[in-house]
Amino acid sequence: MTKPKIALQLWSIQEDCKTNLFDALKTVKQNGYDGVEFAGYHGHSAVQIKEMLEQLDLAVAASHIPFEALQDRFEETVAFEKTIGNQRIVIPYASFDSLEKWQAFAAELTQITQKLQAEGLTCYYHNHAHEFTEVAGKSMIDELIKDNPQLRLEADLYWLAFANVAILPWLKERETKVGLVHIKDMQEQPQESTEIGNGILPIKSYVEAAKALELPWLIVEQEAFQKFAPLEASGIDYLQLKDIVEEVYQ
């Protein structure tokens, strides 16, 4: 079985990207990553992004695109993503205070997903923890996918753990829907993300689940930093995850 490639969600190093995107991407490549997941382009054109990626031999695993951009600037957004070589559009966040508002969003998302599918692009939704708590007794993730066969999930395993979801059964039950995963570790106190291997989450079991799902990418993200600057921390994350991948896929 082919080993998955490892990408960095660039939100992890957002300040470095704002300061000098090319230099940040260069360090990501030097740290060992095969690709990146974008979270904004910091004023650069699609052609400039494409040139940076080609020069550094980095692939695009996916890109987080605000839902509003797809609503208001669909053609422009699609053209940008096609130019940089991206095929996976990830909705990074949605939050509503009632089931009715979530259902209205789900209907709009279904339409956008179908439009993206017609353009040869796949739409994903990225979870946090609140989708399991905003409407009592209901999972809004399941609300989004139940009438949207084209929608895939980017499962953020950290936030599933934060929401006290039984991760491995959850992934198994939605194995036809999960197409990407975010992998990051959790520090116990205070409860926040940390470098892979320095926390309490069973990362190896997550990689084994990714293997069973035959996922093409594992996407690293880190949102809190205790001892290391973001670029250095992301390098540690890569090395730790790479060792686990080598063990699981041997």
UniProtKB/TrEMBL annotation:
InterPro entries, per database record: IolE/XylAMocC-like, Xyl_isomerase-like_sf, Xyl_isomerase-like_TIM-brl
GO MF annotation list: isomerase activity
Keywords: Isomerase
Entry superkingdom: Bacteria
Start and end residues of each Xylose isomerase-like TIM barrel domain: 26-226
Pfam family, any one: AP_endonuc_2
Name used for this protein in its record: Sugar phosphate isomerase/epimerase
Lineage, uppermost ranks: Bacteria, Bacillati, Bacillota, Bacilli, Lactobacillales
